[in-house]
Amino acid sequence: MKKTIELYGDNMVSNSYDDGTIDDNPVPKSVDNPPQKYDWVNIDKDTKTTDVNAEITPSDYAQYVHFVASDSAKATCSPAQATASPQKLTLTGKAIGNSHIQTRLGTITGAEGVRLNVACYKLAEISANFYKVKATGLVPDATTGAQIEVGANEFMKRAVCEASIIDNGTLTVEYDDNGNSTLDFDNTPSHGGEWTNVVNAVSSTAGTKLVHVKAMRAQLSDGSWIGINGVSVGDFVVVTDTSPSKKRTAAHELLHSAGLKDSGPPGNNTANIMYYAGSSTKYFLGYFKVERVVTGVATSYSPKQYELQWETIAR
User: Fold this and answer.
1) Which of 111, 139, 282, 293 is deepest in the core (most CB within 10 A)?
2) What are the chain's domains?
3) DSSP state of 97
């Protein structure tokens, strides 16, 4: 039987882990963006922990698998040797920087198996004031700011970020000027009267504003309209009841407010919190660079020198 080891994450962070393949992110293939050999796990530097699993085949081969941290000043791992499959492996962040966890076969100095790269960051804290905004006939559901905070943070930990949401209760804003039962976000510089009504209602609050409304639509450049689950513009983030998961949408939009862009390409990276199939502008995540590409137009802009998209966040 072929002997294999795969590393993968618990819960909702599995996109950050090496699955043992050599071509996890093959697009685009270029000098600036070679195929990505290893995925990453991201952890907080302040002795915070995150768990991964080692799937070892056959399972009785586990007794021969060891785990070695390449730089224990940046991150450590425990236990040092597997006893079962799957084997839970706990990583602890120590200091900012990149390192990796090696799987060693037979002994701690044996042949190296799959590797898990580790990026250790300072936690980025994103504060937002939460407002539930209703209009006549348009009352958002009972989701609270506290519930969104807990749910959003399950996703935001992928970027070593944490949301702190202050619930400011419910506001009545008669924003639905044309009676179409949505908050309209048009393609003019001001984004239209309905958007302005909401902005004016909460603009006195400093910092990021997280607004929960019943439904929203956005106007495209050709003048047509589409329903949307959320949007981030300036210091405003909006989530709607139409979102399959307001908590994930809130995390995605709050990370936009922290400077992250949508990831791509279409049909790939779907586990990435910043993946958005409908975006016209995407960042393709390469091993050495993040390249901004406008889809549908044969133009790409100068790649940025980042191994990971999270490095763009000010911390």
Assistant:
1) 282
2) 4-121 (2.60.40.1080), 124-257 (no CATH), 263-312 (no CATH)
3) E
User: What is the percentage of the chain residues whose pLDDT exceeds 90?
Assistant: 52
Contact 202, 210 (CB under 8 A): no
Of 41, 161, 55, 167, nearest in space to 113 by CA = 55
Q: Please give the model's pTM, rounded to 2 decimal places.
A: 0.81
Separation CA 98–CA 160 (nearest Å): 14
152-169 burial: b if 16+ Cβ within 10 Å, else e: bbebbbbbbbbbebebee
The owner of tokens 């990435």 is 272
Distance CA 262, CA 239 (A): 17
SS3 assignment, position 146: helix
Closest by CA position to 205, among listed 175, 235, 234, 242: 235
| Nearest one of 283, 280, 140 to 210, comparing CA atoms | 140
Residues of the chain with pLDDT > 70, as a percent, come to 77
